[in-house]
Write a structure and sequence with these properties.
Histone, subunit A, flat, mainly alpha
Length: 102
């Protein structure tokens, strides 16, 4: 897939972002750069790897599957574009905004 202006505009629409026209071309280059990092995976020989293989139900070896509190909640809230109290405000998924009650 070729990354072009149309792809960047579509991704921005999906993310509900407004991109200024002069920022679209730099984003095209940025997206191409990101995709370039993943293209190295095309050189991996996966001919002997079962595409349906899994870990056999083994737990993730990187961390325990337990909830944990993040240490700097205020930093995240301060970085949020919209918030209400100690909650992030996000766009409505469907329907009219502001009507999230059933």
């Amino acid at each position: 897939m070729e990354i072009d202006r149309k792809v960047v505009e579509h991704v921005a629409d999906l993310a509900r972002l407004e991109l200024e026209p002069e920022k679209i071309e730099p984003m095209v280059l940025f997206f191409r750069d990101i995709i370039g990092h993943f293209r190295i995976l095309e050189d991996c020989d996966t001919s002997h790897v079962d595409p349906l293989s899994d870990t056999g139900g083994a737990a993730c070896p990187l961390r325990a599957d337990e909830p944990s509190l993040w240490g700097n909640i205020q930093e995240a809230l301060d970085s949020a574009p919209l918030r209400e109290g100690s909650f992030f405000k996000v766009p409505a998924i469907e329907g009219e905004e502001g009507h999230d009650e059933v």
